[in-house]
Sequence to fold (375 residues):
Amino acid sequence: MVKKNLDDIMNWYVKQRPNYINLAQKVESIIREVLDSSKMSYYTISSRAKEIESFINKAEKEKYSDPIKEIKDLAGIRIITFVKSEVYECAEIIKPLFNVDSNHSIDKSKELGDDKVGYRSVHYVAELTDERLKLPEYQLFKNMQFEIQIRTILEHAWADISHDRNYKFNGVLPPENDIQRRFSLAAATLELVDREFDSLAKEISQYEKQVEQMTVRSELDIDINTTSLNNFLSHVFKDYIESNQLEPDFKKSDKKIIGELNSFGLKTLSDLNNLITKHELGFYVEQSQNFIGLLRNIMLIIDAEKYFKRAWKKNWNGMETSYVKFLKTKIPDIEQILEKYKVDLLDDDGLLISFDEDDEYNEEDEYNEDDEEIA
Fold:
């Protein structure tokens, strides 16, 4: 066996590493663009070129007679998903993008087997396709391989913990205090939790499809929750969403707005649907940026007195005068209602222009940006 010259190997990688950094970034960009265009859910995507010290430590190992050709992860891309089913969905989308080396690509869950617990993720070793290599910006990456890892958040946590702790004991944990057994139990617990999250995600997806189908059929005897409400509004106000007049988003205030709807007396989608006047959909959307503003618009226009008495509960503070003028076209006494419930009026600069609880004029008081406007 020819003895490896580690100095030559290191010098080669020092020169080549900038190209591997570039390759990793290019591949990350390709994957990110395709996953985003496919509306594929994922947690993070990252890339790196192996550090020089890490490469040399690996090259020193006896198993590598020709490290430059045999080490496949000099450029690495990692996709972290939320649940396990997304790992395989990502894999199916990513595989056709590159020339995958099946001899060096593995599914760690299959390799580990059904009777053991531990690190499970999908690893692909790949190269850019011939079609992509014809492009000038990719030509320098010919014959350069990279590794793609796809794993869940919990698999990522397990990999990091096991690598950090287990390797400090050279891969064998001491028997004292049942450390090895407890370590295995911890791994099994993570895997069970991972599976349960995946199962829950699938059930939620099935519920979303069921609600969507029922909404289309106008079968609306469904409790109001985030999923059902999102599907209902997306269906009823589809034209306004597609024309970018309305953003289909609750801005993380879905719990708050559902509480307001319930307090207003709306428990089911049928209740909400019966409240909406179909020929006034455009009016509900006007002055609304998103689903939060839309639903508050609906409640205010239907019965502003009832809204402030039963549902408002000071969930938001301040109403701009331009919005008051808008509401006045439907609610002639809106100013008296706002004064009755001591709702602050704001000018276009966010300054208070109403009387406070002590009836003192506060034109100079600035509206607190942390408080929520009606939106």
Summary: Residues 179-216 form the longest helix (38 residues). The longest strand covers residues 75-81.
